[in-house]
């Protein structure tokens, strides 16, 4: 009870501070909101909405229980990117398709970025190199697989799943499809809120000069990527003189970490799944390390 009360006090203090900063710096708040909404409308919404609707529809029909539990969230996460894997795992856990232990194991490799974003937006758009995007994506996905093996060994044995198959909802297909659409938009609204919030925090830190004390440009890019991966990768592309190898390594690490914005989005999707925040942070950290190491070895092979 004391811990819960302390968490509420901390959350209240942080929210109050955020509101105060919005009042003190209204231009930054408006600019960040415009950027966040623009990013959501032009990139996030078209990329995730079809997958969210399809995933919800399949889930409501009970089709997910017909395949291997870990295959569906991994495939959807790879196809559509953050935070699709977390959403599906959260849904499966709430439907009791998987146990809390399985949810912990699966999130270690089912929380990934999408190939379109890594190759198109980061590789071609930011870094000006499709080959860099492909290398980063390869390191990212291989890192996720190794991360999954690592946590599978960690959680081998012990508790067995008490899962039961998803029961198909007693509704007609049109009603199920409508419910899938409404649920998809609800999830995307949560994602929008996190994007705007962390855009504001990143812009506020940048305006206050919080990043200026970091003398080394790549380290500054990594610090920005700690909060928001898109901002971090964009800053990485502006690092003059940084070699191709280090660009790929740092980009792979930033994208595998995901940033606090993605972590917040994912945790909101994992609500009630039994996956605690410290554990999820650890899985993202190890994924980032594995991806960086793989990117290093891949650059030795191709450069």
What does this structure look like?
This protein has helices at residues 2-24, 26-61, 71-80, 84-94, 100-107, 115-126, 130-154, 173-208, 217-227, 229-236, 244-257, 259-269, 277-302. With 303 residues, the protein is mostly helical. It has one domain. Helix 4 packs antiparallel against helix 5 (100-107) and helix 9 packs antiparallel against helix 10 (229-236). The longest helix has 36 residues, at 26-61.
Order of helical and strand elements: HHHHHHHHHHHHH
The low-confidence runs, each spanning 5 or more residues with pLDDT under 50, are: none
> How many strands appear in the DSSP assignment?
0
Shape descriptor: globular
Protein name: Sporulation integral membrane protein YlbJ
Keywords: Membrane, Transmembrane, Transmembrane helix
Transmembrane segments: 7-31, 37-58, 106-128, 134-155, 176-201, 244-264, 276-300
């Amino acid at each position: 009870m004391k811990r819960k009360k302390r968490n509420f006090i901390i959350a209240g203090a942080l929210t109050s501070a955020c509101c105060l900063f919005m009042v003190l710096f209204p231009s930054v708040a408006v600019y960040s909101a415009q950027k966040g909404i623009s990013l959501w409308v032009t990139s996030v919404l078209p990329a995730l909405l079809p997958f969210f609707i399809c995933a919800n529809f399949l889930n409501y029909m009970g089709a997910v229980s017909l395949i291997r539990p870990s295959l569906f969230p991994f495939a959807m996460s790879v196809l559509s990117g953050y935070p699709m894997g977390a959403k599906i795992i959260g849904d499966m856990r709430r439907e009791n398709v998987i146990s809390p232990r399985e949810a912990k194991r699966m999130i270690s490799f089912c929380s990934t970025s999408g190939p379109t974003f890594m190759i198109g937006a980061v590789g071609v758009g930011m870094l000006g190199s499709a080959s860099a995007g492909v290398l980063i994506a390869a390191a990212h996905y291989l890192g996720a697989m190794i991360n999954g093996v690592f946590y599978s060994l960690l959680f081998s044995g012990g508790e067995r799943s008490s899962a039961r198959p998803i029961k198909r909802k007693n509704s007609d297909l049109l009603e199920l499809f409508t419910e899938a659409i409404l649920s998809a938009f609800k999830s995307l609204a949560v994602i929008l809120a996190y994007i705007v919030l962390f855009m504001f925090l990143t812009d506020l830190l940048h305006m206050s000069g919080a990043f200026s004390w970091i003398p080394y440009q790549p380290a500054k890019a990594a610090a920005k990527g700690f909060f928001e991966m898109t901002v971090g990768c964009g800053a990485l592309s502006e690092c003059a003189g940084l070699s191709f190898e280090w660009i790929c390594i740092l980009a792979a690490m930033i994208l595998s970490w995901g940033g606090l914005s993605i972590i917040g989005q994912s945790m909101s999707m994992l609500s009630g799944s039994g996956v605690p925040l410290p554990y999820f942070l650890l899985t993202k950290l190890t994924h980032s390390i594995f991806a960086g190491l793989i990117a290093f070895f891949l650059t030795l092979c191709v450069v």
